[in-house]
């Protein structure tokens, strides 16, 4: 009535009440009466906002990519924003202009500028895998932008939700990736087989080294056995030499013994010969007949035999000699028993 109005705002809205071009009241969540003809009310939302975007950019190898994401921000200095954009509301609380879209567009433009400078310097494959790098570039570009600083807003974050190439290029990349994966699989199979071959070679080499070591041990054992045999043969030779030397010494002793015995026997024989010669020397010149007589043999056969010998020696002097058979028979008979 008479131009006096009442208006109320929530706690997430910062209000500037201008009266005759000067600020009469300001703050969040205000509720007041005002005179409409000389009043102007600015209402700036203070809550955070999520601003989605889609960029179409070209990479260093002239391939198109679509970058989809969102930027989170809030208005930190509303009075500075009110100096740049018009957030004036009507008596019914609606905005006279839609400058919130201008604000969003300026933020998107700054984000796209930061993204473009990075995407234009890399290739398609790198761009598809560079979501984190793009997020960092957008945050860095927005926070360092003078235009964003003049708007009085705070950038809360930036998220890249997807980076995609054109359908044709995506299929080409899938084919290329599939081929590379196949090559990697083949390489893995080759490396696995090569590893198996290498392991087999190592096993064979270990077996050969083991055989060589065994042969070396056998060789050492054979050499030790030969040394033992040589030592044994040398010991046997020395034993034989010692035995031969002992036999030679024994034979020498035996030879000396025989020589001594021979000398003793010779001396004994010479002694006996001398004794016999000395004993028989008195009878040397005596006639045998005398010796026979000295023998004084009582055997009549012996005496008759001597008689016959004398007869034989004097046969030329005997004319006739008669010997009776009884005499011969008695001579031939054995001596009668006593």
UniProtKB/TrEMBL annotation:
Keywords recorded for this protein, A-Z: Hydrolase, Protease
Hydrolase found in the keyword field: yes
InterPro entries: Band_7 (IPR001107), Band_7/SPFH_dom_sf (IPR036013)
Single GO biological process annotation from the record: proteolysis
SUPFAM superfamilies on file: Band 7/SPFH domain
Keyword Cytoplasm carried by entry: no
Annotated localization: Membrane
Membrane topology, from the record: Single-pass membrane protein
Domain Band, first and last residues per copy: 18-193
Annotated Gene Ontology cellular component terms: membrane
An example Gene Ontology molecular-function term: peptidase activity
Highest taxon of the lineage: Bacteria
Protein name: Membrane protease subunit, stomatin/prohibitin
Species the sequence originates in: Mucilaginibacter psychrotolerans
Taxonomic lineage from the root: Bacteria, Pseudomonadati, Bacteroidota, Sphingobacteriia, Sphingobacteriales
């Amino acid at each position: 009535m008479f131009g006096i109005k009442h208006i109320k705002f929530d706690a997430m809205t910062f209000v500037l009440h201008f009266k005759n071009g000067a600020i009469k009241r300001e703050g969040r969540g205000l509720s007041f009466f005002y005179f409409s003809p000389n009043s102007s009310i600015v209402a700036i939302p203070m809550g955070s906002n999520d601003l989605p975007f889609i960029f179409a950019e070209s990479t260093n190898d002239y391939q198109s990519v679509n970058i989809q994401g969102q930027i989170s921000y809030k208005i930190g200095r509303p009075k500075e924003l009110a100096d740049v954009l018009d957030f004036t509301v009507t008596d019914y609380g609606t905005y006279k202009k839609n400058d919130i879209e201008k604000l969003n567009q300026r933020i998107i433009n700054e984000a796209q500028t930061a993204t473009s400078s990075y995407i234009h310097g890399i290739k398609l494959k790198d761009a598809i895998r560079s979501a984190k790098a793009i997020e960092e570039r957008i945050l860095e570009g927005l926070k360092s932008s003078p235009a964003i600083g003049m708007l009085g807003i705070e950038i809360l974050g930036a998220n890249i939700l997807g980076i995609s190439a054109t359908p044709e290029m995506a299929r080409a990349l899938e084919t290329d990736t599939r081929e590379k994966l196949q090559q990697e699989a083949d390489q893995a199979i080759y490396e696995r087989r090569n590893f198996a071959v290498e392991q087999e070679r190592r096993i064979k080499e270990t077996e050969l080294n083991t055989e060589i070591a065994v042969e070396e041990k056998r060789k050492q054992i054979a050499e030790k056995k030969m040394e033992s045999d040589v030592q044994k043969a040398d010991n046997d030779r020395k034993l034989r030499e010692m035995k031969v030397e002992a036999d030679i010494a024994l034979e020498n002793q035996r030879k000396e013994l025989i020589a001594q015995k021979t000398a003793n026997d010779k001396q004994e024989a010479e002694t006996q010969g001398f004794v016999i010669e000395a004993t028989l020397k008195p009878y040397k010149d005596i006639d045998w007949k005398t010796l026979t007589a000295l023998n004084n043999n009582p055997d009549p056969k012996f005496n008759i035999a001597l008689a016959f010998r004398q007869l034989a020696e004097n046969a030329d002097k005997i004319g006739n000699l008669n010997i009776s058979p009884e005499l011969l028979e008695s001579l031939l008979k054995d001596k009668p028993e006593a």
